[in-house]
């Protein structure tokens, strides 16, 4: 007996993605996803991957040879950074000003590192002097922190000073730029960052699934001097480098994601990094002017506000859940809500990559105005 199985074609609503990620895709990036598939060691694929490496060096503003994209989301890049530089027993000073700083601490603990937390209240940046004083006191082997804290919309200032202090005690500095790379200034070499990583789906403007990462000499030296092997096979930097640089099979990279990342990075280079940073800054200001006109309050303080992700406080009168539901159901716009202590108390608006555009801002402000009226 044959049973007829009806085809079930999925339909997906068209949303305007203005949350904390993923961000809107440039139509050209979306088109790249449907190019013909290639084998992961095809010469054409190898050429595209080499080009991605060069484009990533441009985007990170680095000359680091050890620059590639990890197959996985931002969390896989976090784990790659930490699993390679941390050895069990290492003292690891972790800057925590929100959800993702805490995740750095959790991963460090899983790797057997001794976590030393330097914290700021959620919504504030960590005082760089406090981090520097703790570095001098503790003399850690590794310092890690988040540059752009997505849970609060706060940017951590003075990375270059923190880097100098870390280097004075021989520590490797790891910085998470998941919500800043490609959207606001990140300068790996000038700032002295030893390991820097990001994700595809925010200001880079690609889908999630390939995550940029770069390692400098100090980090490579620490990795070469390890007395214990890296505990992960999938995220072992030396194996990943053999794959990216010498085409030694390690895993089967996703061809569509490679095409999309290449296209997104090429767009960054064509726009020019500085022009792109400026665009995000101008659009953030335009959006903030609208937010002020709606008499809404912001969480992050003026000097520590991200250009890429804006956090708006909500109240019982202006309930987060209602606003988000109405935006989604009536306007097909996605924005994020609060997490951790800000659960139910915050709107998180991402103006990232292709999403940082005047027409989207006008659309969102118009929708917000009619919901709040
Ligand atoms: N770090 C930061 C600052 C993030 O915002 C995110 C995700 O939003 C991550 C790490 C983890 O990235 P993913 O969700 O792609 O695993």
Automatic annotation (TrEMBL):
Residue spans crossing the bilayer: none
Matches recorded under InterPro entries: Aminotrans_V_dom (IPR000192), PyrdxlP-dep_Trfase (IPR015424), PyrdxlP-dep_Trfase_major (IPR015421), PyrdxlP-dep_Trfase_small (IPR015422), SP_NH2Trfase/AEP_transaminase (IPR024169)
Binding site for substrate: 348
A biological-process GO annotation: glycine biosynthetic process, by transamination of glyoxylate
A Pfam family this chain is assigned to: Aminotran_5
This protein's record includes keyword Zinc-finger: no
Broad enzyme group: transferase
Domain Aminotransferase class V: 39-338
UniProt keyword annotations, A-Z: Aminotransferase, Pyridoxal phosphate, Transferase
Molecular function per GO: alanine-glyoxylate transaminase activity; L-serine-pyruvate transaminase activity
Residues bearing the modification N6-(pyridoxal phosphate)lysine: 202
Family listed: Belongs to the class-V pyridoxal-phosphate-dependent aminotransferase family.
UniProt-recorded name of the protein: Alanine--glyoxylate transaminase
Species of the source: Thermobaculum terrenum (strain ATCC BAA-798 / CCMEE 7001 / YNP1)
